[in-house]
Design goal:
mainly alpha, 3-stranded antiparallel sheet
Length: about 375
């Protein structure tokens, strides 16, 4: 499905279009622990329990309260490149900033962020997949990343047990204490939950920041406008999200008989909702193929719709705005000197850059 109206309707109807794809995926026992608490792959009413728990601990006030810390981390990371006029923006800022923020929030040692980067590289690298993977490709990919999943789930379980024994003032401790209808999460349920927060809590921001630099570089004058008018950054970030959604397709399982655009879809078949196409639907966006940093309104579907709207969207937006503001404040110019040196992610897994060498000029 590619038009905005249909994609929004599909994402907003979990009773018909289920997020639980476990029946369609190859069996892999190593992933069972992650699936147990992964509420992104759950449908109501079970989804409500987990979403409510994270909403209790991950409030808008918590997110807004992170702004000074995000800015301090961003400034420190850029201090590390000192007076260098060339550096890799992903390695320097786009990856470590969000992972340090979410790790600190969860009470996980932020100094281990290189380990988390390795995990994310395996989970989202897509090295075993082509751009149009089939089931055999998927099975090979799951087998290849299974050892990393075992390591990650073991690490998370140890962290959760330590926090349960010695609670602190962190998100993991608040999630352990939170309850819905008198029920709290077990350690095993928490594993997938915390792993999701750690991984999903940074990978979208990493992709968003890299994509923003690429898009601004490819549209001369964008950096100058945003440097002169920083209040326009929020709209510019939304346009980057519309143009390059990190996860351009979402799969849904047909849970009950439905006719869509005159076609009957059988139960348990897979439907792909294409966010990237919906974000450029001319019926919903004026001049959809024009990158416009001032676009308003901008009803893109990059963060989803309905009950599965991305819970981390406010944090991703905040981190992106702060990081871009710091870059514009520090550097008079910022450019990608050669796209031959840029390494892109496998778009079958995530749309973003893995390495982004940039050249900067100071005032």
């Amino acid at each position: 499905m590619v038009d905005h109206e249909t994609v929004a309707a599909v994402l907003g109807d979990p009773a018909t279009y289920s997020s639980d794809l476990s029946a369609l995926a190859p069996a892999q026992p190593d992933f069972d622990a992650l699936r147990e608490g992964n509420f992104v792959a759950m449908d109501p009413p079970k989804h409500r329990k987990y979403r409510t728990l994270v909403s209790q601990a991950f409030t808008p006030r918590v997110v807004q309260g992170l702004e000074p810390r995000i800015e301090a981390i961003g400034e420190r990371l850029l201090d590390d490149v000192g007076d260098r006029d060339r550096f890799d923006l992903v390695d320097t800022l786009a990856y470590p900033l969000p992972i340090i923020v979410i790790a600190e929030l969860l009470g996980i040692p932020a100094e281990e962020h290189r380990l988390f980067q390795e995990w994310a590289g395996v989970l989202f690298g897509g090295d075993q997949l082509g751009e149009t993977p089939d089931m055999a490709d998927l099975e090979r990919a799951l087998q290849a990343i299974a050892p990393t999943v075992r390591t990650m789930t073991g690490y998370m379980l140890d962290h959760i047990r330590a926090r349960r024994a010695n609670p602190g003032d962190d998100l993991t401790s608040r999630l352990i204490a939170a309850e819905v209808d008198g029920v709290r999460l077990t350690d095993e349920e928490m594993v997938g939950f915390v792993a999701l927060l750690l991984v999903a809590g940074h990978i979208t921001t990493t992709a968003l920041l890299g994509n923003a630099i690429v898009m601004f570089d490819r549209h001369p004058g964008a950096f100058d406008v945003l440097r002169a008018e920083p209040a326009r950054l929020p709209q510019a970030v939304e346009e980057v999200l519309r143009w390059l959604p990190p996860f351009p397709e979402l799969g849904r399982r047909i849970a009950r008989p439905v006719v869509l655009h005159g076609r009957e879809l059988p139960v348990d078949s897979l439907l792909m909702a294409h966010l990237g196409a919906a974000n450029r639907d001319p019926a919903r966006f004026a001049a959809p193929d024009t990158f416009d940093i001032g676009r308003n309104p901008n009803p893109h579907l990059t963060f989803g719709q309905g009950v599965h709207f991305c819970f981390g969207a406010p944090l991703a937006r905040l981190e992106a705005r702060i990081a871009l503001r710091i870059l514009n404040k520090r550097f008079r110019t910022l450019a990608v000197p050669s796209y031959a040196d840029v390494t892109f992610q496998n778009p079958a897994v995530i749309v973003g850059v893995r390495h982004l060498p940039v050249q900067v000029g100071r005032a």
